[in-house]
UniProtKB/TrEMBL annotation:
PROSITE patterns: CN_HYDROLASE (PS50263)
Protein name: Pantetheinase
Domain CN hydrolase, first and last residues per copy: 1-119
Domain of life from the UniProt record: Eukaryota
Pfam family, one: Vanin_C
Family, similarity comment: Belongs to the carbon-nitrogen hydrolase superfamily. BTD/VNN family.
InterPro entries for the chain: Biotinidase/VNN, C-N_Hydrolase, C-N_Hydrolase_sf, Vanin_C
GO molecular function, one term: hydrolase activity
Keywords, comma-separated and alphabetical: Hydrolase
Length: 254
């Protein structure tokens, strides 16, 4: 990892408010949060060329939303849309609502997203006030998107399973290991769960009408080995639904 000798955060003022910027992978490091220490910074402009990884924490839009909510700032995220490298997922997020408008669709088409955003991230948000809009941008022509966007994902996306992408809509994602996670399967219709790993704990309170599907609650406080290139510390927890394969129920051991 190359880090500057003297990191310098960038800020700019607009009629809407004061912004800082974070670029791509930097969103995962503490320096991106330290940039928010500047007085009056409530908004982040975030351009990226993200690569979706599975399972768990490295899909673009869930990570963007979680970062906005965890740091109590508005986040405007603009990702590339190139499904063959798992690069897609853009949105406008605010802490109290999460995603105001977003897209995560392997169609390979550029889009313009618009939404009203509260000037103060901690303000209450009424859905009717948001006015979210989506547009396709093809060869410089802007076309309104009619109705709900219907993402088309195939059941498998791992580069370790599929051959190389042959066209622009062949979505691929990269694998991450799960051997550093602790897991607990949800079995009851209602429960309070806490799991700890390396002095990092997460709790979950839930209610369900049925438990016909397999859900797992996972947590890690361990270092993550990223593509054997470098390691970085992670503290994350998640709730995942696992599909059965050939009639066999999902099993995760830890």
């Amino acid at each position: 990892m190359n880090t500057p000798d003297f990191p310098e955060d960038a800020y700019f003022d607009t009629e809407f408010g004061k912004f800082t910027t974070v670029i791509c992978f930097d969103l995962m490091f503490k320096e991106s949060v330290e940039a928010l220490d500047e007085p009056g910074v409530l908004n982040v402009a975030y351009p990226t060329y993200w690569f979706d990884h599975t399972p768990f924490i490295f899909f673009a839009t869930p990570y963007q939303q979680a970062w906005s909510m965890a740091n109590n700032v508005n986040l405007i995220a603009a990702d590339a849309n190139f499904p063959p490298t798992g690069s897609l997922g853009s949105g406008i997020y605010t802490p109290n609502k999460g995603a105001l408008v977003y897209t995560h669709n392997p169609d390979g088409r550029s889009k313009l997203l618009i939404s009203n955003v509260p000037k103060r991230p901690d303000s209450s948000v009424r859905v009717n006030d948001l006015g979210p809009l989506k547009f396709f941008i093809d060869d410089g022509k802007v076309t309104p998107m009619e109705g709900e966007e219907k993402p088309v994902f195939k059941k498998e996306c791992l580069t370790t399973v599929l051959k190389d992408a042959e066209n622009l809509t062949d979505y691929r994602c990269s694998p991450t290991t799960i051997d550093h996670y602790q897991f607990k399967k949800l079995k009851k219709l209602e429960d309070d769960i806490e799991i700890c790993d390396n002095d990092f704990c997460c709790s979950l309170s839930y209610q369900a009408e049925s438990m016909d599907e397999d859900y797992f609650f996972g947590v890690t406080g361990q270092d993550l080995n990223f593509k054997d290139a470098f390691k970085f510390g992670t503290q994350s927890c998640f709730l995942a639904r696992c599909d059965s394969i050939e009639g066999k129920a999902a099993v995760i051991s830890s």
